[in-house]
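Dear H.,

Thanks for agreeing to be a second pair of eyes. The structure we're designing against is below in token form, covering all 314 positions.
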């Protein structure tokens, strides 16, 4: 892992030069740069998401801190927990403009989880000269079978919870953005996503393929990663009830999925991986860091990706 590499390098340099430990800190400037991207990193949450619920639970659990510890400048945005991609996208556009004004940066690197991916893609289309990259994490980039099942009336029970949860999350998180659960579901089902992709095709794949999208469109780099959790015995953590729920929702699918998004649907631009041993919420290190002991640490995936952006000059 990069911390080890950095520390090992510094220690080796110090030993070679015969320096003491205190000099090592000074020689390294005391600051880590592994994730020090050229442009700020802007995180965009998914359906029923939030930035921080009452200051207690962070959506991106321990991820911004890890990125900042490695030198990144991270901004956590907050849009409507449940609304159409376009409404959420316009809210994000306004927040990107604010971040650019605050930081003096020319561009941002957008990273969107779940519904945050098309939300980020929308903002990139509106602000093409102000976005350096769009990264989709467990992103809804083609249709979601679960949303199709809701529209077909097959998932009334869970569907009924969406508007209630959306309003609760807004209330707890102090988010005054309006919710429209029906618009959210319509954005995420297969018909809605096909229409969105026709208008905003950058980085997308055709729905029946499972390949890669264009890596760079209009000067913006596109990346994606996701996990799959439909394998036998996939319970990421025995204490994590979200693992059980995602195991249930994944039954709507007849292909590899992470409990909410089929792995092929998650693909956008350069596919880093779509088969991490992580479910839909594990990829943002939820709940409270409860992921499978044997899986890749989701926080490390973000930090390594920031280094990838840095290496690309972004
Ligand atoms: Ca979990």
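And this is the sequence the design step returned. I haven't edited it by hand at all.
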């Amino acid at each position: 892992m990069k911390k080890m590499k950095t520390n090992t390098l510094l220690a080796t340099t110090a030993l070679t030069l015969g320096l003491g430990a205190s000099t090592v800190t000074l020689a390294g400037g005391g600051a880590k740069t592994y994730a020090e991207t050229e442009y700020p990193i802007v995180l965009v949450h998914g359906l029923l998401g939030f930035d921080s619920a009452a200051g207690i639970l962070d959506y991106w659990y321990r991820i911004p801190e890890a990125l900042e510890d490695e030198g990144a400048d991270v901004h956590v945005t907050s849009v409507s927990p449940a609304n159409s991609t376009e409404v959420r996208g316009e809210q994000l556009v306004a927040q990107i403009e604010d971040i650019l004004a605050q930081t003096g940066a020319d561009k941002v690197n957008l990273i969107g989880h779940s519904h945050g991916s098309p939300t980020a893609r929308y903002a990139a289309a509106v602000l093409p000269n102000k976005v350096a990259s769009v990264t989709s994490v467990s992103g809804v980039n083609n249709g979601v079978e679960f949303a199709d099942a809701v529209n077909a009336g097959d998932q009334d029970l869970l569907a009924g919870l969406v508007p209630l949860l959306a309003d609760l999350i807004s209330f707890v998180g102090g988010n005054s953005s309006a919710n429209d659960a029906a618009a959210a579901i319509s954005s995420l089902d297969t018909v809605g996503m096909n229409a969105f992709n026709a208008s905003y095709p950058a980085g997308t794949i055709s729905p029946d393929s499972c390949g890669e999208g264009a890596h760079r469109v209009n000067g913006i780099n596109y990346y994606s990663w996701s996990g799959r959790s439909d394998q036998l015995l996939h319970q990421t953590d025995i204490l994590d009830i979200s693992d059980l729920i995602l195991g249930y929702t994944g039954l709507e699918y007849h292909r590899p999925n992470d409990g909410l998004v089929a792995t092929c649907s998650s693909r956008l631009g350069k596919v880093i991986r779509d088969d991490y041993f992580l479910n839909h919420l594990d990829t943002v290190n939820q709940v409270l860091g409860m992921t499978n002991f044997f899986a890749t640490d989701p926080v490390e995936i973000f930090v390594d990706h920031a280094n990838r952006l840095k290496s690309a000059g972004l």
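Two observations from my side: The chain has one domain: 34-311. The longest helix spans residues 85-103.

Warmly,
E.
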